[in-house]
Amino acid sequence: MGRQRREHRTQNTDGAFCSLCSVLCALLRTETAPAWLSAVGSTPATFSPMASTRDVPDGYEAVIGGEIDVSELTDLIVAAQIAIDGSSPVTGSFVTMMLDAPGAHRDEGILTLRETGSGTLVGVGLHRDPDPHVESVTSGWVHPIHLARGMGSTIVRWGLGRAQSHLALAPDGARVTNRCQASDSDTVAASLFSEFGYTPDRHDIEMKLILEGPIAVSELPDGVALRTVSKDHDIEIVARTTTEAFKDHYGWVERPWSETIERWANYRAMAEWDDDLVFIAETPDGPVGTLVGLRSYGSHGDVGYIGSLGVLRAWRGKGLARTLLTTAFAEYQHRGMQAVALDVDADNLTGATRLYESVGMKPVRSETSYLIELRDGTDLVKR
C-alpha cells in the first residue's frame, strides 16, 4: 500500500501516557505487550533520537540513558496518573519490572527530562523493542505541574526516532510498528498521538469485583486438577502454558524461548508476586490452563490483581476459566482483600469480558492504544 510522507506540526501539548499496570497485564498475557492494528494513512516523518535531547522546551534538559532512581521515577508516574485518573497503584516493584523487561535498555532506552537548575525529574520516556523488533512500545509520563510545555511532544518524537533507528533489526520484509497507550481520561495525550500520525486501535478495560458475601467456586471439569506453584520448574510450566493459550490471541508474536524465561523470572522477582496465587490446571496429559494472581494491586494493598488467565483452546467452553477465576476470588477473600481487579482486551474474541461480567466484575477504567506503521510488510504479529 502506498503512503505519502507528510510533515508533522505538533502542538505544544503533553500527556502522561501508558498505564504501568495494563502493561504488566499485557506482558503476562501475551509474552509481549499486545500489538495495536490500524490503517495508518501516512508514513511518519523521520526523527532522530539524539535530536530530541536538543529539541527540549526552554528551562529543561534532556538526557538519554544513564542511571535513574527507581523511587524518583515511581513518584513521577504516581503523580502523573493521579492527575489523570485520581489514583495510581504503581509501586517501585512495578517500575523495576518494567525497566528490566526484555527489550528495555537502561543505557539508551530511557529519556529523562529535568528542570534546569533544580535538576528535578519532570518527565520520562521509555522505549522497549523486544526481539524480533517488529513492534516497539513508547511509554511516557510528565509531572502535572509541568504540563502544556511541550515535553510530551519531546518524548513521542524521541520514541519515534529510536523506533526508526531500529528498523534494520527487524526481519527483512516484516511490517514494523510503534505504539503508545493512554487512559481514556487523558484527552491531551490522544490529541498528541494524532498530531504525530498515530491512530486509535485496541481498548483495554480495567474491571473490579467487590468481595462481599461468600464466593461460589465453580466445579472443575472432569479429569482436571488444580494446584499452585510449588517449585522453580513450575514457572516454566506456567510460562509455556500461558504462551500456548495466547497464541491465537490478538497481539501474539513468536519470541525466543530464552527471552520468555527471562521475562517470567522478571515477573517472579516482583514484591507483589506470590507462588500461592499462581494456579495451574492439569490433566494426566499435562497442563491446560493457568491463572497468575498478584498479592496486591500494587499500592492498593486491599485489592488483589489478576495478571493473566489462559486456557488452551481444546479446553475452552468447559467452565475451566470460571473455576480458575472464582478459585482466585475465594483465595483473595480468605486473605481479607476487599476487591479484585484485572485488565481485559475489550475486543477479545474468546468472550473474556462476558465471563468477567458474569461473575460480577464491573468496568471502572478504560485505556486506548495507538499505533503508527513505520514500515510496510508482512505482519508477524497475530491480528
Order of helices and strands: EHEEHHEEEHEHEEHHEEEHEHE
Radius of gyration, CA atoms, in whole angstroms = 21 Å
The count of DSSP E runs of length 2 or more, i.e. the number of strands, is 14
- Write down the overall mean pLDDT: 87
Q: Helicity range of the residues? A: 25-40%
Strand line-up in the sheet with most strands: 3-4-5-6-7-14-8-13-12-11-10-9
Which CATH architecture of the largest domain is right? Answer: 3-Layer(aba) Sandwich
SS-based structural class?
alpha+beta
Q: How many structural domains are formed by the residues?
A: 2
Please, could you describe this protein's structure?
- The chain has 383 residues and is an alpha+beta fold.
- It folds into 2 domains: 4-206 and 367-375, Aminopeptidase (3-Layer(aba) Sandwich), CATH 3.40.630; 207-364, Aminopeptidase (3-Layer(aba) Sandwich).
- Helix content is 28%, strand content 27%.
- It contains 9 helices and 14 strands.
- The protein has helices spanning 20-30, 70-85, 92-99, 151-165, 187-195, 232-245, 257-268, 320-334, 352-358, and strands spanning 4-5, 42-43, 60-64, 110-115, 121-128, 135-142, 176-183, 199-210, 225-228, 273-283, 286-294, 303-311, 339-345, 362-375.
- The strands form 2 sheets. Strands 3-4-5-6-7-14-8-13-12-11-10-9 form a 12-stranded mixed sheet, with helices on both faces.
- Helix 1 crosses helix 3 (92-99).
- The protein starts with a strand and ends in an 8-residue tail after the last strand.
